[in-house]
Specification:
By secondary structure, the protein is an alpha+beta fold. The chain is built from 9 helices and 10 strands. The strands form 3 sheets. A 4-stranded antiparallel β-sheet has the order 3-1-2-9. α2 packs antiparallel against α3 and α6 packs across α7.
Length: 249
């Protein structure tokens, strides 16, 4: 599970550039729009919207952009009609990949995703080929210098977390999807800062890879995440921290 923590750190570093932040804005706008369309524009009554807005704010998306995305979702202003779907496949080293997208042209997106897989040493699979491996989870990362281990465990478990992983550079708090916000709020109430908090999917089966395959998998993931229609990419690879640290430079 520490591989997820390291990978999240790599993605945060990449997102620091203006170009990467612009792409994140586009993806969060789609996520907010879809969440508002499906569950309404009230954050308190729509957990998915609340999580999406919190994620958008974490990358400093302007409030006006968030408000417009919500209004597009609720139909108050016109906008593209995005359809959610997912693609499944395998990358180098037999690593499973689950790709969630939001698109207004399914045929175009399907062709693009297939091309990205093929170009980067992967294979697009049939529906259901890998999705059964991935289960929704909430993941909160906390710097080890921010709080004592015992205190963190006490706060998070009382708030509904499942587990705290103490391996790696950061604490990794795992929660049921529906308890992510409650655990995050519990940490905030005790003045414990979080590095990141996300609703994600984690695999029940980890595939260890060496440096060569790890580099190839990350190249494939980068290419997928760079596509405008891709919201999230989940993978089940794991690699030594020192390997991932070298690849993040």
């Amino acid at each position: 599970m520490s591989g997820h923590s390291k990978w999240a750190t790599i993605k945060r570093k990449k997102a620091a550039t203006d170009q990467a932040r612009g792409k994140l804005f586009s993806k969060y706008i789609k996520e907010i729009t879809i969440a508002a369309r499906q569950g309404g524009g009230d954050q308190e009554a729509n957990p998915r919207l609340r999580t999406a807005i919190a994620a958008a704010k974490s990358v400093n998306m302007p409030a006006a952009n968030i408000e417009r995305a919500v209004k597009r979702g609720t139909g108050e202003i016109e906008g593209a009609n995005y359809e959610e779907t997912q693609y499944e496949g395998y990358g180098p080293g037999g690593v499973a990949l689950l790709v969630e997208v939001a698109t207004d042209n399914r045929n175009r997106t399907a062709g693009d995703i297939r091309h990205i897989f093929t170009k980067n040493g992967g294979n697009l699979g049939e529906a259901g080929s890998v999705s059964y491996l991935f289960k929704p989870r909430g993941v909160i990362l906390v710097e080890k210098s921010a709080v004592a281990e015992d205190t963190l465990i006490e706060i998070t478990l009382e708030a509904g977390a499942d587990d705290v992983n103490t391996e790696g550079e950061s604490y990794e708090v795992l929660t049921p999807p529906g308890r992510l916000e409650a655990v995050k709020q519990a940490l905030a109430s005790r003045s414990v800062p979080v590095q990141s908090a996300e609703a994600t999917k984690l695999s029940s089966l980890q595939v260890p890879v060496g440096e060569k395959d790890a580099e190839a998998v990350l190249r494939l993931v980068d290419a997928l995440e760079d596509h405008d229609d891709v919201l999230r990419v989940y993978s089940n690879f794991t690699a030594p921290d020192e390997v991932l640290a070298r690849l993040s430079r």
